[in-house]
Amino acid sequence: MTTHFFGDTAVLTGRSLKHVTRSVDTIITTAIVPVAMMLMFVYVFGGAIQHGSGTYVSYMLPGILLITIASGISYTAFRLFTDMQAGIFERFQSMPIVRSGVLWAHVLTSLIANLISLAIVVGVAFLMGFRTGANVGAWLAVAGILILFTLALTWIAVIPGLTASSVSGASAFSYPLIFLPFISSAFVPTDTMPGPVRWFADHQPVTPIVNTIRDLFARHPVGADIWTALAWCVGILVVAYLVAGISYRRKIS
To answer: Based on C-alpha coordinates, what's the Rg of the chain?
Structure first.
């Protein structure tokens, strides 16, 4: 059964990746919006924002990376919704393949596409002056957190991809996720915010994730933020995976 799962998932992932390579504009679009935001914040607003030591592009890059992921997962919901409407799932049901492999194929495709977009954004950040003394271990830790965050949001994307009644409904869920980093420590320190807004910013998932990535890049002690960040990512991932599984079973039953 395990062998069938990995084999079926690999074949189905290859199929999904072919769709992505035929529309490379989705990856480019996913990267362009965060890059444009990074350019605007650094060169237009950066001089007026008090963020502490270091360059502003280094300060804001972790938040931009999370926005990149939030932008990219909307395409996962779109591709999944399109497959549902085209009857692809019904065809797969008549074939001797592991049913969960269909969802995992979309999830892994999302992960690969988002990693490419993240690499583009980091490359542009280096051109804009981003510098880090992070060692290989810190880079691997950052990559691990971003992968975990991508998986968590992608499984959230699976839910509207399966349950939405329109294309716009399938992808609109990502808008609040894109907006969430703006009410966090991603662009300004939370202690500059008014009381209720600061409380929300300090207790939502983006802030500890951003703080952890920022500390890893700056080679600062990460403290308790890393455990809070991991707890948020794992918690969201588990809940989203379970809800997506229930939605999938209802859809194909």
So the answer is: 19
